[in-house]
Amino acid sequence: MFPRLVDKNTSVILKRLQQHLAKSTKLSIGYPANLDFDYALLLPFFQYYLNNVGDPFVEGNFALHSKEFERQSIKWFAQLYELEEYWGYLTSGGTEGNLYGIFLGRELNPDAILYSSNDTHYSVAKAARLLKIPHVVICSQFNGEINYEHLEYELSQRKHQSAIININLGTTMKGAVDNIERIIEIVEKVGVRYYIHCDGALGGMLIPFIRGAPKISFRDYPIGSISVSGHKFIGSPITYGIVLTRQPYVNKIETSVEYIGSQDTTILGSRSGIAALLLWYAIQTRSQHFRKEVASCLENARYLRDRLQEKNYHPLLNDFSITVVFDKPEIELCRKWQLATEENFAHVVVMQHISTQKIDLFIQNLLVNKEIENEKFLTGNRKTMCVINCV
Fold it and tell me: Is 140 helix (H, G, I), strand (E, B) or coil?
C-alpha cells in the first residue's frame, strides 16, 4: 500500500469542518433529515469498496457488493406496502426515485402526460424535462393538497392520452397528503389509461405507522411505484433512497449487459453498497420502534404548533404530518436555525432529534428576534417623526 501522509494543514481543515458540522447540527430543524442515528458498528466496512452495480436481484460478475442486504431491505418495504410481486433498488435519493417511477410510467405509456400539483417536489418537473414528457401542473389547496376538481378538469381535456399521476405522500413545504383513493376515483371516472407514482420521500415512512392514516397499499390500489428517502425519517450520514415497483413492469424494460453480468434495470450504473448496509442495519435494529418514533415526532410537532399558535405565528400542521408551517421570521433567524422558506412561510420538520427542549429554545429565539425587530421598527418611526417635526 502507498503511505498515507496527512500534513498539519489538512488536519486543521478537517477539524474546522467537523466543528462547523457539530455546531450546525445542533440548530438544524428546517429540513426533513433525522440526525439522531448511530452506525458506529458499520465503520469497519468503510475500508472496503462496495458497489452494487446492476440489478440488485442479479449477483453479477463483480464480487465487492452488498446486494443481499439490499434485497432484504427491499423485501421489507414490499411487505410494508403490501406488494407481492415486487422489484426495487436503492437510489441516490428521492429525486432519482421520482425520476425512475415517472420513467417507468412513460415506458409503459409512451403517449402519457404527467400530472402533478403545484406543491409537488421540484424533482418531478425536472423528470418531465429530462424525459421530455408533457407536464400539466394542477392547482393546490391552501394546505398543500392537490385540487381534485382541477385535476378532474385537466384530465377530461385530454381523455385520448394516458396519464402519469404523481401523488404526494407529504408535500415538500406543507406536508400535505394527497388522497390516493379519491384520485383513483377521478381518473377512472374520466376514463383515461393511467399510471400512479407516489412520492413518499418523508411521508412514506410516517403514514404506515399512524393509526387512522390512509393505507399505502399496492394490493388495494393500482399504484405503479413509490419513492422513499432513506436519509429523511430513517437517518443516514449519506443520502440514499428506495424505489419500489411491480416486478412485471421491470420485465418489460430490462436489458442484459455482459460487461457486468447483470440486467440494466436502474437509472445509475454504480450504486452505493454502503447505503444498503446502512438501511439494512437500521431496519434490523430499529424497525420494531418505528411506530414509537413516529408517535414521538407527531407529539412534538403538535407541541410546536401550539407554542407558535400562542405567539400568533399562524401555524399549519396537516393530518399525518410532522411539518409545521408558520409566518416567516427574519432572515437572520431563518439562517441560524436553517429554516426552509417559501414566500411568506417557513417550516420546521419535527424529526427524531428535535425535542421539546429544542423547540422551547427556538421559540425563545423567535420571540427575542421579534422584540429586536419591533424595537428597530419603532426606532425608525421615532427618527422619521423627529425629522418631520424638525422640518
Answer: strand
If one counts every other C-beta atom within 10 angstroms of the C-beta of residue 258, the result is: 7
Q: Answer whether residue 372 shows pLDDT above 90.
A: no
Average pLDDT (101-115) is 97
pTM above 0.90, yes or no: yes
323-327 vs 316-317, strand pairing mode = antiparallel
Q: Is 99 helix (H, G, I), strand (E, B) or coil?
A: helix
DSSP tag of 146: B
92/263: higher pLDDT: 92
Q: Are 116 and 163 in contact (CB under 8 A)?
A: no
d(CA 320, CA 93): 22
Domain with residues 20-38+289-384, CATH architecture? Alpha-Beta Complex (3.90)
pLDDT at 387: 47
Nearest to 60 by CA among 255, 282, 199, 262: 262
Whole-angstrom Cα distance, residue 235 to residue 240?
10
Q: Which residues are catalytic?
A: 321
Tell me the CATH architecture of domain 40-288.
Answer: 3-Layer(aba) Sandwich (3.40)
What are the sequence ranges of the domains in the chain?
20-38+289-384, 40-288
